Amino acid sequence: MMAVKLGEKDVMAVSLYSKEGNPLWEQWSTKSVASTLRTYSRMTFDYPYHKAISVHAPMGMEYPMICFNFGRPDKEGNYSDRTKYGMIGVIIHEVGHNWFPMIVNSDERQWTWMDEGLNTFTQYVAEQDFGKWYPGALSPNDKAFPSRRGPAKNIVRYMGGDQDYIAPIMTKGLNTYQFGNNAYSKPATALNILRETVMGRDLFDYSFKEYANRWKFKHPTPEDFFRTMEDASAVDLDWFWRGWFYTTDYTDIGIKEVKRFAVTGTPNENGKRLAERYNRDPKSLVYFIEEGAEGYEDAIKTNASIDDLPTVKEYIMDNFTPKEQKEMKIAPKYFYQITFDKPGGLVMPLIVKFTYADGTTSRETYPAQVWRLNDKEVTKAIASDKEIVSIQVDPDLETADVDTTNNTWPKEVKESDFDKFKEAVKD
Ligand SMILES: [Zn+2]
Predict the structure, then answer these.
(1) Cα 310 off chain centre by
(2) I need a surface site. Which of 57, 67, 143, 230 has the fewest CB within 10 A?
């Protein structure tokens, strides 16, 4: 056992195991309990009891202050990474149940996700902490604790699977297929994405803590969780709860079209016609010429900048954030109109990576609200002083996008195994 200081109090982290559990149990059980107490107390409220006990057993099961956990080496004391990580993970999970649903006392049979989902999410945070606090527990090839549930990419297979066997998270546990994915993995992943990609850690953690404190020793329902997260953060999350918890929609966002434009004060034939139609002096206007149209190459060569073109500057400034407007001062020369489409039902922030001709990159995150007036597609105007050579949506796989073949421009052509086979046969 070891004492864990939580606020003014010492809590005993305790392990009970037979010698057959060693060397795993003597090394990692008590540290896992202690680490759980620290992370969960930070994310919610201090563990209110004097002791937390982990008992070596054939399976994982939670009770107030005591839980039973699996993970045993073979007779010679050898064990795989899977056994080690599985044991640490299950201890964190079962100790974590003291908070959800035992103290924040939701109804497990009615809303399984409110304890398994919230607990699995906090387990993920605790596992990542554990890997940092006890790097000696990690295998040489692992830079971080290899959490099974929580990372966005791990839920893709489930969410992109056969819709006949997927139920919304809000479905009563007894009535769902794929119980583990439905009640544990998907809500844990949703909350992880909400924290890392939608709200940011500060806002999320503040609101999550507020929920736990408001509802400790009480009986919250899903609305209490949803409302507290919105109320404490002042962020409208209706769209997020609706998509992730009440539907079986998945994320799929892609790049539908990219148009390139050059800007010029010299009208082409089309520009002259337009000026005539609106009875304006053609020289008083500025023109965007789409790639491929007459005058595009010339316009690119004249190196015109938006600063030389006050009319167009005023017009396009409305399309950009203050930050982007500030960058406008660098006299952009390349103009793009990018249409993103959303074949998937889920609304998600639009995370975009731009790669420039000189090899540098930049990233923009457009909030989920870009979809508010059009759920199918959204168009962004981009001005740049450097030529953009490629664009990628969700470059770090943060949104659980189920189909990444439409995430890049120009489209990445991947040779199929069949094509490779045909090539091989030809030789
Ligand atoms: Zn559980």
Answers:
(1) 40
(2) 143
Q: What are phi and psi of 263, to 5 degrees?
A: -115, 140
CB 393 within 8 Å of CB 340: yes
Instruction: Name the burial class of residue 76, with classes exposed (0-12), middle (13-18) and buried (19+) by CB atoms within 10 angstroms of its CB.
Output: exposed
* CA 156 / ligand 1 centre spacing (Å): 22
Tell whether the model's pLDDT for residue 329 goes beyond 60: no
Q: Place 332 in a pLDDT band, splitting at 50, 70 and 90.
A: low
Q: For residue 66, what is the enclosing H or E element?
A: strand 66-69
Q: What is the pLDDT of residues 337-368, one digit of tens each?
A: 999 999 999 999 999 999 999 999 999 999 99
What is the rounded CA–CA span in Å between residue 168 and residue 244?
8
Q: List, in order, residues 6 or more apart from 74 with CB less than 8 Å away.
A: none
CA of 402 to the centre of ligand 1 (A): 27
Q: How many A from CA of 221 to the centre of ligand 1?
A: 18
Instruction: Determine the distance separating the centroid of ligand 1 and the alpha carbon of 119, expressed in angstroms.
Output: 7
Give the CB-side neighbour count of residue 70, counting CA atoms within 13 A.
8
The per-residue pLDDT for 330 is 46
Cis upstream peptide for 410 (omega within 30°): yes
Task: For residue 385, name the pLDDT band (cuts at 50, 70, 90).
Answer: confident
CB 215: neighbour CB atoms within 10 A? 21
Task: Tell the burial category of 105 from Cβ atoms under 10 Å away from its Cβ (0-12, 13-18, 19+).
Answer: middle
Ligand 1 centre and the CA of 183: distance in Å? 10
Pairing assessment for the beta strands 254-264 and 287-290 based on DSSP bridges = antiparallel
Residue 200 Cα to ligand 1 midpoint, Å, equals 26
Task: Give the end-to-end CA distance of the chain in Å, rounded to a whole number.
Answer: 66
Confirm if 267 and 309 have CB atoms less than 8 A apart.
no
Distance from the alpha carbon of residue 6 to the mean position of ligand 1, in angstroms:
24
How long, in residues, is the chain?
Answer: 427
Distance between Cα 186 and ligand 1 center (Å): 14
Q: Are 105 and 217 in contact (CB under 8 A)?
A: yes
For 159-198, b where at least 16 C-beta lie within 10 A, e where not — what string? bbbeeeebbbbbbebeebeeeebbbbbbbbbbbbbbbbbb
Contact present, 349 and 197 (Cβ < 8 Å): yes
